[in-house]
Amino acid sequence: MSRTLPDFPSPQEPWLETPVLLRRSGVRLRPAQRQDVDFLRGLYRSLRADELAQLPWPEPAKQFFLDDQFALQHIHFVHHYRDAEFLLLEQDGAPIGRFYLLRRPQADFHVVEIALLSAWRGQGFGAALIRAVQQEAGRVMRALTLHVDPRNLAARRLYERLQFEPVEDDGPYQLMRWQAAPLS
């Protein structure tokens, strides 16, 4: 079974500016487009590979499952976060990750998704993206929220270093929140 995937919403300018650390490494942000879906599907597969490696399923069943889960996630994100920024990270024109960010007036900012290919993790790119959003959220006195899988210890440690605090368990994910400091 193949699901028809909706297009990404039309990008609203200005989208998040690429942080300096990323620009110095040849990385830039740009709006995700329909032609990026194959990369995004592969990225999703890579994020869940360790989890599915433990299952005794035949490889085609695993790929079918992952493709179906990716499609459901994509449909959910595009439907529930229509006004989010769906950004792709590229290094010298090659995609390396995704960053989906929701910034609504008079509401907390929310990182919907942040994911990098394994070769690009641990280099400070995720932290740079989140710090850039924290700076913007701080300027307009908004909080920043995100969800983390409690089993993803590296991500959780990163968010804690960036001053996020656990708020509540939200199903299989932990909601975390960063609050902008009041202006003195």
Polypeptide structure, described:
The chain is 37% helix and 25% strand. α2 (37-53) packs across α3. The longest helix is centred in the middle third of the chain and has 22 residues, at 59-80. It has a seven-stranded mixed beta sheet, sandwiched between helices. It has 184 residues and is α+β, with helices and mostly antiparallel strands. The chain has one domain: Aminopeptidase. The chain has five helices and seven strands; from the N terminus they run αβααβββαβαββ. It has helices spanning 20-24, 37-53, 59-80, 125-139, 153-161; strands at residues 27-31, 85-91, 94-102, 109-116, 144-148, 165-170, 173-178.
Give a short overview.
The chain has 184 residues and is α+β, with helices and mostly antiparallel strands. The chain has a single domain, classed as Aminopeptidase (3-Layer(aba) Sandwich), CATH 3.40.630.30. It is built from five helices and seven strands, in the order H-E-H-H-E-E-E-H-E-H-E-E.
* Biggest sheet features: 7 strands, mixed
Number of strands: 7
Describe the global form. Answer: globular
Mean pLDDT: 93
Tally of helical segments = 5
N→C terminal distance: 57 Å
Output the helix-strand order: HEHHEEEHEHEE
Stretches where pLDDT is under 50 for at least 5 consecutive residues are none
Strand line-up of the largest beta sheet:
1-2-3-4-5-7-6
Quickly name the level 1 CATH class.
Alpha Beta
Radius of gyration, in Å, reads 17 Å
By CATH, the topology is: Aminopeptidase
Share of helix among residues? 25-40%
Strand content: 25-35%
Give the CATH H-level superfamily: Gcn5-related N-acetyltransferase (GNAT)
CATH architecture: 3-Layer(aba) Sandwich
Total tally of structural domains: 1
The class by helix and strand makeup works out as alpha+beta
